[in-house]
Amino acid sequence: MKHPKTTLLIFGILILIAFDLILTVGVRLALKGTIEKRPLGNPAKIRIQHPVYHHGLKPNSFSNQERWGPQTYSVFVNSLGFRDKEIRNIPPATNKFRIVFMGDSFTEGPGMDFEDTFVGILSDQYADKNIEVLNAGIGSYAPTVYYIKTLYLINELKLKFDHVVVCLDISDIQDEAINYGIANGVVTARIDSFPYTTKMFIHDYTTIGRLIQHYSLKAYSHLTHPYSETLRTQREKDLSIGKIRSSWTIHKEIYEEYGKKGLEQAKIRLQSLYELLHPLGISLTLVVYPYPDQIINHDLDSIQVRFWKEWSQEHDVNFINIFPAFIKPNETELAAEETIRKHYFQGDDHWNKEGHSLVAQNIAEGLQQIGIPPQ
């Protein structure tokens, strides 16, 4: 044996990893009856991988134990794989004016029953006006997925609709910069790569490995990033502010890191979406809204607003800016904090019932400007 010490060291590390894995899953199995780290995260297995647009919901399924933080809520999925008020069949064509909402988790509405989400509220409001509302939004979507999924709905499912509302999230820009791509007409994602899946395996099925991973990544972030999240105060955590993912509109360094690239990539995908819809006579609305970081920093004239307002004007696309509903001119930091606490879950970027109600109101007013519904 040429290098006995090195061989013994490698062998010892492998034994430690195996021991860590066996002990972790063994204890978890004994205490919880499962080796899964999050056994209640998807009890009905309604969330599935999709061969074309990466991930979605299982058609004609139901779960009454979906979890979002401390909230437990119900999810019904219709025949298209869209979140809905109930399990129901959606025919490809209808004599109603049909609106498809496309977005990420904000549009899906985590932690909320469907009727309390902004899409559910609008669906109920439009029900007696010969308008059908469909919610194609799912958590972690971004413009790449918006485009490919819409293409799939039109070409593969032969779904007929009249209007698309894209709810463009602040986090979409980071997702476009670092996560999503397209290969052979299929959405690809960095989270499916070997390094990422290995990282998640260590996190979910080991204890020592997870702690080493957590603190080493935390230390690396603190030492290398000018706006590290590792030193956030409890107040910042409660308000869900000071996050790198949502601060690209505020800090130039973060904008240069991924914001600029993400905006350009998102623009390419939305351009493709527009060029898909326009020849078919399907009109488009683009919606932007703030995160707590934009509210607390009074980012009213945000680059997110300016960039997409200009793009919408160039393409004659209806543009709904919900920033003013959450950010008032010359308001104090205390007032901004009160706005966050009123409309968002504590410690979370996402809207609570009050937030969804406010967003529904603003989208309804914005759609009315283009005659939806007609008076």
TrEMBL record:
SUPFAM superfamilies: SGNH hydrolase. InterPro entries: SGNH_hydro_sf (IPR036514). Keywords: Membrane, Transmembrane, Transmembrane helix. The chain crosses the membrane at residues 6-31. This is SGNH hydrolase-type esterase domain-containing protein. The lineage of its organism: Bacteria, Pseudomonadati, Nitrospirota, Nitrospiria, Nitrospirales.
